[in-house]
Amino acid sequence: MCDKEKNTIKKLTEDIKLARYFISPPGEVVSEEATYAKLGKHEMARRLSMDMPKYNRLVEGKIHINGGIAGLLEDTLGIPCGFWLNLDKGYKKRLDRLKYMQRELGYCRRIVKLEEESARLRMGGTNAMR
Predict the structure, then answer these.
(1) Cβ distance 42 to 52 under 8 Å?
(2) 89 within a domain of the structure (yes/no)
(3) How would you label 105-119 residue by residue, b for 16+ Cβ within 10 Å and e otherwise?
(4) Which domain holds residue 106?
(5) How far apart are CA 107 and CA 93, in angstroms?
(6) Is 13 buried (19+), middle (13-18) or exposed (0-12) by CB count in 10 A?
(7) pLDDT digit string, tens, across residues 10-57
(8) Does residue 130 lie within any of the structural domains?
(9) Does 17 reside within a domain?
């Protein structure tokens, strides 16, 4: 593997680690704002017309904020609907970017592996293409 390929893989790996660190779901902001407003999890779930498992999925980023949820958040926390929708939109974009980088890293690793196997074949290696 040449230095350029090593550097590309190293940079992508570092970028992915940073992206994971800085990506936080909008639900974390919901939880923080609820705490600031002195509203517990159960009360927030009730005000958002959610059961606790669904509220927890919202906080974890497993479900996204849509117009209905954003409207209920505005009514409950006083933070405009557009804020919540933009927060979720940005989160989705960052997740998409992370997935793209992960795919690129996988492609780079496969290319390197194929190049190494090809080089072994050219040199008459018997353990190539496993």
Answers:
(1) yes
(2) yes
(3) beebeeebeeeeeee
(4) 3-119
(5) 21
(6) middle
(7) 888 888 888 888 889 999 999 999 999 999 999 999 999 999 999 999
(8) no
(9) yes
